[in-house]
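Customer ticket, subject: "Can you confirm the structure for Ig-like domain-containing protein?"

Message body: Hello, I'm evaluating your service for our small team and ran a test protein. I'd like someone to confirm that this is what the system normally returns, since I don't have a reference to compare against.
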Amino acid sequence: MRSRKRRRTLKSLGQSNCEGYLDFLFCFSLLYSPISYSCLLLLVLPKILPFTFGDEPSHLGESTTVQCSVSVGDLPMKFAWKLNGKPVSEIAGIHSGAFGKKASVLSIELLVEYHAGNYTCVVENSAGTSSYLSELIVNGTKSVLICFDLFFSPSPFNPIYSSRNF
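Agent reply: Thanks for trying us out. I re-ran your input and got the following:
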């Protein structure tokens, strides 16, 4: 979980001031008054619930859906999905969208080879950024079809790469 420190100021009681970094306690006092007040400025990072693409590898041609949900954290939140560090919006066949205020869904209707890899859900709010990574394994991405010439003399080995399972 990563976070960025940001300075926050709260001015709600006339000439009062409350400042803090993330979730630290700072005091403020009213000008022209001997009375001192304390405030707790809490900025809560998003806590992402663990998600997976399942216990078994997926197969070419199947579909898959996964949900990134946040259990705690300040609103509003901004969700982003990445595949191997690249935004999924740049990758064909992958769709994502909001599901309420604290969740985002990623959906792939037809799995192909380049959909395999590490998917990261990145959630940002006023307190900072959190991320969670899950791997999608797609069977059939590394199959090799080996052809032998049974009637003629041996020839150089020329494998044919295919994405099909044999």
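A couple of notes from the result: The chain has two domains: 2-40, 47-139. The two ends are 41 Å apart (CA to CA). Feel free to reply with more questions.
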